[in-house]
UniProtKB/TrEMBL annotation, chain A:
Keywords per UniProt: Membrane, Transmembrane, Transmembrane helix, Transport
Residues in ABC transmembrane type-1 domain copies: 22-201
Designated name of the protein: ABC transporter permease
Domain of life: Bacteria
Pfam families: BPD_transp_1, OpuAC
Transmembrane stretches, start-end: 26-48, 57-77, 83-100, 136-162, 182-201, 213-231
Gene Ontology molecular function terms on file: transmembrane transporter activity
Topology of this chain in the membrane: Multi-pass membrane protein
Family affiliation: In the N-terminal section; belongs to the binding-protein-dependent transport system permease family. In the C-terminal section; belongs to the OsmX family.
UniProtKB/TrEMBL annotation, chain B:
Alphabetized UniProt keyword annotations: ATP-binding, Nucleotide-binding, Transport
Top-rank lineage group of the source organism: Bacteria
Entry GO MF terms: ATP binding; ATP hydrolysis activity
GO BP term (any one): quaternary ammonium group transport
Similarity field: Belongs to the ABC transporter superfamily.
InterPro entries assigned: AAA+_ATPase, ABC_transporter-like_ATP-bd, P-loop_NTPase
Residue ranges of every copy of the ABC transporter domain listed in the record: 2-235
Protein's organism: Niastella yeongjuensis
Protein name: Glycine/betaine ABC transporter ATP-binding protein
Length: 521, 264
């Protein structure tokens, strides 16, 4: 009951945002589907005439569908930038296969005698297509459109990764902020949209469509509907910021940026996977990054000085289930071996090797342990298996590899890694449920995202990284039976970043400079 | 009226129709007869250009078929296929109105024509709003015929129009075809591989074998004056029943009388 009230409370508090995202979501889906119809139906008709081409054309559209959606978006960024354009292109490519294939099979599947009769009556190719073939194939074509639409409602959630908006903003924001209500506020409307579109199209399918014109009545309707969503012009004048969903929801993120600095700036929500590159490509001017990220160096970005201290420094440390520590007591010593060996600049350099030099995280980890003289060949023990997790970014991959090597070299334990758990919530839930035994976490994330500490607590602890460490250490132990081991040594904190060249040109070195600049605009 | 001159159709190295010539007169009801694969369908379809000949020419009223676009030619030639060639998304009325609509007849004229044709093929007027899946096989074929006749084409082509029907229905429909006043004046070419049917329906018969014309003539000619052994052989199996069908009753009486006279 309480959960339901919470959820309802979230909806009430964020209904404007929800409405906006829903409209964006509908817009992305409908625009891309209409493009897919506009190209896919004629293509299907064409290959139904030239059947020799059919396997090739349908094969090509099938290839688009096999590309994982996130990868497809990734490929499109260099070509189409960020924002709605690449998202619509990707969704369009996804919708193509079912529409082309069903148009083709719908036409091919019409009784040969019926087609022949039409020709023998003296219909031209064109008339036959319009009066006989398309109406008879229409139910099949519509079911293709239905499939494509339902797929695209789902895939459109990923548009949030590349600043195209949609309900994915809540979904991914909720995942990285450990906010179930936020996830549901995005997921439930998305599911309802899929059901709604599916229902409407199934109704359309049942209408006896004698004349094709009846079907096209719905077309202007769709166009009118999707025009609610005009493509927001990404290339306005002035600076544009890109913030991650997590940053948007954190107190030591966008919230303090507004309240402490009073920064009023146009911004979009974007995944950290593509954010740095987008800044480098001048799609974005300001981004919210992590201070140790290797891509800062890789993409020639500069960090703005946090002159009002809203981004406190936080420790990174492995967090481990106490159950695992009891089962394998030798674990703690081994995991603490990294303590004091990695400072800020070393971590940044290690990340740089992964992000810019594209070295394997495994190699980076091994090289580092060797230079430190603590690398040992695996013992090949089978006393038990330790499961190590990591989030999806280089630093986490490198650290989890180091832990794996240390455990294999110094104990008789074996290691299984589950890398690429996409966000704090997923990683932490995996740990809590015993799917993994440990992963590297940051005290700030523990404080704000996992414990969701209130403002009084965070205010009291702010700026003192040891106090934060002690607080999360005690709370995690009490609430979750999860132990924070010793801090590794480097600090990680949020930072605003810009292209170095632009910082120089605009003479911006601190966040206050940025605020002054945007106010003038 | 229809003149087929030295027409050949090849599929790869195979002759489906082989240097075939024949004349079909105005108002002739010709049955194209022959074994399976003998080229009947191929020949028929070359007449409305569903198939283009490899070489040779076909003329109607002296005019080469290729002088006008194929789709315009076809509007003047009725075509009846086997069953299930009705447009499933059209009502009976809409099916029958296809060619009149292509010819841009006015609505009233078309509607009147549909009423007239339904009556002629013995279907209740209420059937005009039915869809093909609501018709029996025989009823479907009646509509099919009505559709082919709708715009009053001078020529009617039919490819085994009765083959998909059961025996009783087939007899009834054949009867309808024979009695239908509208059909009498038309030039009709009907493909069949059923010898009985050819003799019953055709006032002339063209017998094909391996793409070649063996003989064309009146049923009785084929029977009593076969051009060659092949014709004789083809008809041998059903000689007696054909003889009865092909010979008018008076002739039989005459023949019997002659026999009696000779005996006495
Ligand atoms: N599209 C085609 N491609 C290749 N060969 C064909 C094609 N159409 C017909 N043929 C061949 O041409 C020959 C004549 O075919 P056609 O359909 O005219 O025969 P038919 O007399 O109508 O036979 P049936 O009584 O079985 O319908 C056959 O041997 C057939 O295999
Ligand atoms: Mg045939």
């Amino acid at each position: 009951m309480n959960d339901l009230e919470n959820f309802w409370g979230f909806i009430v508090a964020h209904w404007q945002k929800l409405l906006e995202q829903t409209v964006q979501h509908i817009g992305l889906t409908l625009i891309s589907i209409m493009l897919a119809i506009a190209i896919g139906v004629p293509a299907g008709i064409y290959v139904a005439r030239k059947t020799k081409l059919a396997p090739t054309v349908i094969g090509i559209t099938a290839v688009f569908q096999t590309i994982p959606s996130i990868a497809l978006l990734g490929f499109l960024i260099p070509l189409a930038g960020i924002g709605p354009t690449p998202a619509i292109i990707a969704l369009f490519l996804y919708g193509l296969l079912p529409i082309v294939r069903n148009t083709y099979t719908g036409i091919i599947g019409i009784d040969h005698n019926v087609k022949e009769a039409a020709t023998a009556m003296g219909m031209t190719e064109h008339t036959r297509l319009l009066k006989i073939e398309l109406p008879l194939a229409l139910p099949v074509i519509l079911s293709g459109i239905r499939t494509a639409t339902v797929i695209n409602v789902g895939v459109a959630t990923l548009a949030a990764y590349i600043a195209a908006g949609g309900l994915g903003e809540f979904i991914f924001g909720g995942i990285s902020l450990n906010n179930t209500n936020m996830i549901l506020a995005g997921a439930i409307p998305a599911a309802l949209l899929a059901l709604l579109f599916d229902y409407l199209l199934s109704r359309l399918q049942q209408v006896k469509l004698k004349k094709l014109s009846t079907a096209f009545i719905t077309l202007p309707l769709l166009i009118a509907f999707s025009s609610f969503y005009f493509i927001p012009g990404i290339r306005h004048t002035g600076l544009l910021a890109g913030f991650t969903p997590e940053f948007m929801g954190r107190k030591d993120g966008y919230l303090d940026l507004r309240s402490v600095y009073d920064l009023q700036m146009r911004h979009v929500v974007i995944s950290d996977a593509v954010m740095y590159k987008a800044a480098y490509d001048k799609e974005l001017d300001v981004i919210s990054g992590y201070s140790t990220d290797g891509r800062i160096k890789a993409f020639n970005l500069g960090t703005l000085r946090d002159d009002k201290h809203i981004f406190p420094p936080y420790y990174a440390a492995p967090i481990v289930r106490t159950a695992a520590l009891q089962q394998f007591p030798e674990l703690e010593v081994v995991l603490n071996m990294l303590t004091g060996r990695i400072n800020d600049s070393i971590m940044t350099d290690l990340n740089y090797r992964a992000d810019y030099l594209h070295q394997e995280p495994e190699k980076i980890a091994a090289d580092f342990l060797k230079t430190q003289g603590i690398w040992k060949a695996p013992r090949g023990g089978h006393k038990g298996v330790v499961h190590i997790g990591s989030k999806i970014f280089a630093e986490q991959y490198i650290l989890s590899n180091m832990y794996a090597m240390l455990i294999k070299g110094y104990t008789d334990l074996d290691v299984a890694t589950k890398t690429g758990l996409g966000g704090t919530k997923i990683c932490f839930e995996a740990l809590r449920n015993g799917n993994i035994d440990l992963y590297p976490e940051y005290t700030g994330t523990g404080l704000l995202v996992i414990l969701q500490s209130n403002i009084a607590t965070t205010g009291r602890l702010a700026q003192n990284k040891n106090a934060v460490y002690n607080y999360v250490h005690d709370q995690f132990m009490q609430q979750y039976q999860i132990k924070w081991l010793q801090p590794i040594g480097f600090n990680n904190s949020y930072a605003l970043m810009m292209r170095q060249a632009q910082m120089n040109q605009l003479a911006i070195t601190s966040i206050s400079d940025l605020v002054k600049f945007t106010d003038k605009e | 009226m229809i003149s087929i001159q030295q027409v050949t159709k090849m599929y790869g190295p195979k002759f489906a129709v082989d240097q075939l010539s024949m004349e079909i007169a105005q108002g002739e009801h010709l049955a194209l007869l022959g074994a399976s694969g003998s080229g009947k369908t191929t020949l028929l379809r070359m007449i409305n250009r569903l198939i283009e000949p490899t070489c040779g020419t076909i003329t109607i009223n002296g005019e080469d078929l290729t002088t006008q676009p194929a789709h315009l030619l076809r509007r003047d030639i009725g075509f009846v296929l086997q069953a299930n060639s009705l447009f499933p998304h059209y009502t009976v009325e809409e099916n029958i109105s296809v060619v009149p609509n292509l010819l841009k007849w006015d609505q009233q004229k078309t509607q009147a024509r549909v009423t007239e044709l339904l009556d002629k093929v013995h279907l209740p007027a209420a059937y005009r709003n039915r869809y093909p899946h609501q018709l029996s096989g025989g009823e479907g074929q009646r509509v099919n015929l009505a559709r082919a006749l709708a715009a009053n084409p001078p020529v009617l082509l039919m490819d085994e129009p009765f083959s998909a029907l059961d025996n009783i229905t087939r007899t009834a429909i054949r009867q309808l075809f024979k009695e239908l006043e509208e059909l009498k004046s038309k030039t009709i070419i009907m493909v069949t591989h059923d010898v009985q049917e050819a003799f019953e329906m055709g006032d002339s018969i063209a017998l094909l074998q391996n793409g070649k014309l063996l003989q064309k003539g009146k049923p009785a000619d084929l029977l009593y004056h076969p051009a060659n052994e092949a014709v004789k052989e083809f008809l041998a199996g059903s000689y007696l029943s054909l003889a009865l069908a092909a010979t008018p009753a008076e002739e039989i009486w005459q023949w019997l009388a002659d026999k009696n006279n000779k005996r006495s």
